Amino acid sequence: MQLRKEIMKLLSVIVCLGVILSFTGCASSASNGATAKSVTKDASDLSNTLVYAGENTDTINPVVTGQSELVSIIFSGLMKYDASGKPIVDLAKSYTYDEKSLTYTFNLRPGVLWQDGKPFTAEDVVYTYKELTTDKTLASTILDDYKDIASVKAKDENTVEITLSQYNAAMPGYFTIGIIPKHLLEGRDLTTSSFNQNPVGTGRYKFVKWDTAGGTVSLVRNEKYYDKIPNIEKIVYKTVAVESTKALMLQSGEADLAWLNAKYAKNFRDKKGFKNYDFTTADYRAVSMDFRSKFWTQNKDSIGVLNYAIDKETVVKSVLTGQGCTAYSPMQLNAFGGNKEADIYPYDLDKFAKEMAKLGWTKGSDGIYERNGQKFHFKIQVRDYEEERVDIANVVTKQLKDAGVEMEIVLVTKFDWNAGYDGFLAGYAVEFDPDAAYKQFVTNGSANTMKYSNPVVDNLLTQARHSNDVNERKSLYGKFEVAFAKAPASVLIAYLDGNYVGISGLDGPDTKRVLGHHAVGVMWNVEDWKLAR
Length: 533
Prior knowledge:
- By secondary structure, this protein is α+β, with helices and mostly antiparallel strands.
- It folds into two domains: 48-256 and 519-524, Periplasmic binding protein-like II (D-Maltodextrin-Binding Protein, domain 2, 3-Layer(aba) Sandwich), CATH 3.40.190; 283-496, Roll (Dipeptide-binding Protein, domain 3).
- Helix content is 31%, strand content 23%.
- It has 15 helices and 24 strands.
- The strands form six sheets. A seven-stranded mixed sheet has the order 8-9-10-1-11-22-12. The protein has a six-stranded mixed sheet with strand order 14-21-13-20-18-19, with helices on one face.
- Strand 15 and strand 16 form a beta hairpin.
- It is globular.
């Protein structure tokens, strides 16, 4: 009986081992097979597909949002920017400008098709610019770029005339705005149209699908594009908010290219399998004040002096790991900017204390400055997923606190201009014509979210916009920089380099171009890129 039990026990063990081995073998075989199949499938699907970890977005429409990476490759304008940032023809094969009548005449490329197969004509151009200049319901920060357009008309299906009410030196650059299709949008509310999530352009890549749950926008190259057709067949644009996630996606192979903050980009330097692309950008960070808030209404005379209390070089070295430079002007890195006479605030705590005393501020028992019974305490909002901005804000907060000023940080998921904060940790860029500053800083400008108003700035920016003398414009913008420094809208902290990281099999990103806010513009020459896996 005992022997029988032992035999049965042994048989059970053998059966169990057999089952385990069977499952192990099947699992191994299935796993290997699935992996091989998956690899084969992925290699087939992704061999010529660029996966880009990009910015969050909910709208792809150049008229509503202005430029973005997606807008730049789906849409095309009458003009485009070349490597040096100079506007050159695009949908227009040529153009002329008549100084006497202030009229641009664009001769359009014949045979261009919308990505839905419909013909592109002059009527689409007329429709786009009329929306920008006459649609009173349109909510867009770029509207002031087009306020000098008096009329737009089609002479024939391949010729458009755009007449200005007065000369605008920046106009050629503003003609780079993507043209939108009249046949799909006429009569619709551009701000709320479903077109914004299902865009149709004439550009290098064609929209296929937006998987909002998965956070991916799928694109395929436009085989009927009128110029050089891109080498890379597909682009999968992943909408990623959190900066650390982008770095993890690159590391794990889920992304081929991403803009990273300096600290994350540093981790990929000299790392096998990756390339670093370091662009110059005009992208700056600043503590931007909301002039609707009670605190700044009463204390706007004390904004500039804060610069003395901030060691900006420390911010550049610590937060940006040296990938950037200290900032003193919103157009400091522009060809028309960089007036050193505007660099009036060295880091100097003794000077800060003296200037605060002149302004009537005295330190209370807690070490915080007070004036007229009010503490120097203001509250700014910072988006919680932008680690670089959070880090900058934390360093600045500590430095200001040590000097006697309380800057309270409130982390938010989305900026809310009506929530009653005293400002926000801002970013902006003036990478092309310096007139880009007009809409942000002129009183009631279309991008002037913080309601800054300075008559001297208004006058200088307006004069510079309408001057046709390059030297005069440079002089005016230099004066603007000084006037802005003396009565600033914000406390500028630093300019960032554009640190991109790509896989070693990606070839083609060209660092000649100066990039914009959030390092936008990396895909300016995407048609030349190649991908090898």
